[in-house]
Amino acid sequence: MADWTTISALATAGGTLVLAAATFVSVRSTHESTRITERALLAAIRPLLLTPRLDDPPQKVPFMEPGYWQGAFRDSEVGDCCRARDAIAARESLYIDVLYGDYEGGQRTLSRFALVPMGDDAWITQVSRHWNVDRPIRVSRPRVRFARH
Fold first, then answer.
1. Which of 33, 40, 79, 80 could join 45 in a cystine, given CB atoms 3.0 to 4.6 angstroms apart?
2. 75 contact partners, CB below 8 Å, separation of at least 6
3. Per-residue pLDDT, 15
4. Residue spans of alpha helices (H) in the chain
5. Are 113 and 96 in contact, with CB atoms under 8 Å apart?
6. What pLDDT shows up at residue 1?
7. Would the pTM of this model clear 0.70, i.e. be above it?
8. Cβ–Cβ under 8 Å, residues 97 and 112
C-alpha cells in the first residue's frame, strides 16, 4: 500500500525544486538586461521597453545625426604625419584608429575610421570597426561532448 503522505511530500519537494530552478534561471537572465538598461539610463538614452503591436501606427525612425571629429599631428616632421600627407597627396585610402572614452571616463573604445578617396576631389569617411578595451571579450565557444564507448 502506498504511503500518500510520503508521496505528497516528495511531489511538493520536486515542485519546489523545479520552481527554484526556474526562478534562478529567470533572475540570472534578467540581471544582464538590468545592467544594460541601467547603463542606458545613466547615458540618458531612453530604452525601448515595449514591443510594438500589429495595430500600432507606423513610426519614422530618423538616421543618427552626423558627428564631427577632428584630428591633428602634433609634430609635422614625425614619420606618421609624412606618410599621411603623402597618402593624401597620392589620393590613397587611410585607416585611422582613435581611442576615446565615454562621459564617465571609462568604457574606452577603439574605433577604426576609413578615409577613402571618391572621384577627383571628394573623400568618404566611415567607421569600419569598434573594439571595447575595458570590457572582457565574450567568445561563444562550441560545446564539445565526448561519448564513452
1. 40
2. 81
3. 92
4. 4-42, 79-89
5. yes
6. 59
7. no
8. yes
Rounded Cα distance, 110 and 135, in Å: 12
The three cell numbers locating residue 144: 564539445
Q: What whole-number distance in Å separates Cα of residue 45 and Cα of residue 24?
A: 29
> Grid cell 538586461 — which residue?
33
C-alpha 35/C-alpha 47 separation (Å) is 12
**Chain position carrying cell 602634433:** 74
What is the identity of the amino acid at 48? L
- Closest by alpha carbon to 130, among 87, 88, 104, 101? 101
Whether the CB-CB separation of 90 and 113 falls below 8 Å is answered with no
| Cα atoms in the Cβ-side hemisphere of radius 13 Å centred on 29 | 5
